[in-house]
Amino acid sequence: MKVVITFCVILTSFSLASAQSPEQELEALGIELFTPPKPIANYVKAVRTGNLVFLAGHGPGKADGTNIKGRLGDDLTIEQGYEAARVAAIAMLSSLKAEIGDLGKVTRIVKVTGMVNSTPDFYDQPKVINGCSDLLVEIFGEKGKHARAAVGMASLPSNIAVEIEMIVEVIP
Amino acid sequence: MKVVITFCVILTSFSLASAQSPEQELEALGIELFTPPKPIANYVKAVRTGNLVFLAGHGPGKADGTNIKGRLGDDLTIEQGYEAARVAAIAMLSSLKAEIGDLGKVTRIVKVTGMVNSTPDFYDQPKVINGCSDLLVEIFGEKGKHARAAVGMASLPSNIAVEIEMIVEVIP
Amino acid sequence: MKVVITFCVILTSFSLASAQSPEQELEALGIELFTPPKPIANYVKAVRTGNLVFLAGHGPGKADGTNIKGRLGDDLTIEQGYEAARVAAIAMLSSLKAEIGDLGKVTRIVKVTGMVNSTPDFYDQPKVINGCSDLLVEIFGEKGKHARAAVGMASLPSNIAVEIEMIVEVIP
Questions:
Q1: Which of B52, B61, C30, C99 has a 20 to 30 Å separation from B34 between CA atoms?
Q2: B49 touches A: beta carbon within 8 Å
């Protein structure tokens, strides 16, 4: 009996050790979320309806207010695009945390739409949007695996490199 | 007792005065909704699932069947684009009213995706889509504030200036 | 009494005859669904949340792994684009069946977003995406009628002709 209990305690510890909170995962990666800037128009960064949160299209905006700009296939490499998509994911997670308070409430990243500022002959949108997808899975594990679209846009606001939106399922 | 009742009546009147129905707000703005033209293909203008209504992509089509056409950055100014987005919003509200009967059932505009017919060097999609966002907030107040994406498209059907879709939460 | 029962049996038979299952409709059209290839990145082909299934953006990928490539307005005709949209619909139905097991569980195709690889002067995206919409209505009848957007993209991954995503309502 004692052995069984001890074994269970050990199992639970392992399980806890491997299941850090999203906030702890972010900290381990050295990523700091920030207070999202208020939109300067009649829209908001996130709307919750039932147990879904719809995030606005987010650019690769950093905490200091700067953005990663440029077009893939022209003035940005795939690696720079990947980094831009990762920065956009951090911006989305910042808006999501501002909306729901605790990223531990996320039960599933449902859908990501990754829109890449592209020349007509740039065909590697998936490699760019992986910068967002990879971070989501680093933070949320299996819950972070989402349905995705990755497509090329003629142009984006202020010539930002990517604009990404997502739909997230949270606990009721 | 009489004083309390009178006070309540006054309060209620104020509250009613400041909370006009969406239909009254539209009338005050001189906007007339219209019967949406039937799509000529195997799709519809709106689908309700649970308490969400998904609107099809709507162009800037007017009651008389004409459309605002042209590309931003080339043959249309930002002001003309703003007007096109406002006209697309009126078309969407027409389809929404046809679907749910009474715009007073709207509890939240959840998401707007604003797709702007753009040259590669046009970067002001948000200023264009404000034409839709501003009208939604004029009509629905705080309930009209939505998550939004505003992006540049290589081309749109019949060379229309914008195509906008939205997701709306309605009472169950 | 006997007459009534017989009449009911006849009615039921007629009703069954005209309401084939989606799988039977597919077979009648000579369409075979296939096991969708595993995405090679941190995303999945479909995510279910509540009674909605969000499908990833699907290209015109066939069972043999090949894709229909090219740009509308340049190296593909509208007919070829229509065929590409139909192939993308088959790919989506394959992913949907893999997710929910039985297409008879579909209660409504809610939304289709059809993104067409387009030159700036190609304006017939709706005629292309009809290839998807027509098949959905062939398979699901009235339940297959969806809200839709059809738009022109600057470029798509691997230069595929179309990328289409959809949202489907299924039985709880």
A1: B52
A2: no
> DSSP per residue over A111-171, as a string?
EEEEEEEB-TT---HHHHHHHHHHHHHHHHGGGG-EEEEEEEESB-GGGBSEEEEEEEEE-
- In angstroms, rounded to a whole number, what is the distance separating the alpha carbons of residues A136 and A145? 7
The ipTM assigned to this model is 0.89
The pTM assigned to this predicted structure is 0.90
Indicate the DSSP class of residue C115. Answer: E
Nearest to C155 among A122, A126, A130 (CB): A122
Task: Please determine, for residue B22, whether its predicted confidence score (pLDDT) is greater than 90.
Answer: yes
Please name the residues in contact with A4: beta carbons below 8 A apart, sequence gap of 6 or more. Answer: none
Q: Region C108-119: what's the mean pLDDT?
A: 98
Contact A57 B149 (CB under 8 A): yes
In whole angstroms, what separates CA B82 from the centre of its chain?
Answer: 12
Q: Which two tokens stand for residue B114?
A: 């604003």
State yes or no: pLDDT of A4 exceeds 50. no
A39-43, A163-167, B57-61, C153-157: least confident range: A39-43
Closest Cα in chain C, distance from residue B20 (Å): 30
pLDDT at B105: 98
Tens digits of residue pLDDT in C30-75: 999 999 888 878 999 999 999 999 999 999 999 999 999 999 999 9
One-letter-per-residue 3-state SS of chain B? CHHHHHHHHHHHHHHHHHCCCHHHHHHHCCCCCCCCCCCCCCEECEEEECCEEEECCECCECCCCCECECCECCCECHHHHHHHHHHHHHHHHHHHHHHHCCHHHEEEEEEEEEEEEECCCCCCHHHHHHHHHHHHHHHHHHHHCEEEEEEEECECHHHECEEEEEEEEECC
The tokens for C112 are 């289709």
Q: What b/e string do you get for A117-134 counting C-beta neighbours within 10 Å, with b at 16 or more? A: bbbbebbbbbbbbbbbbb
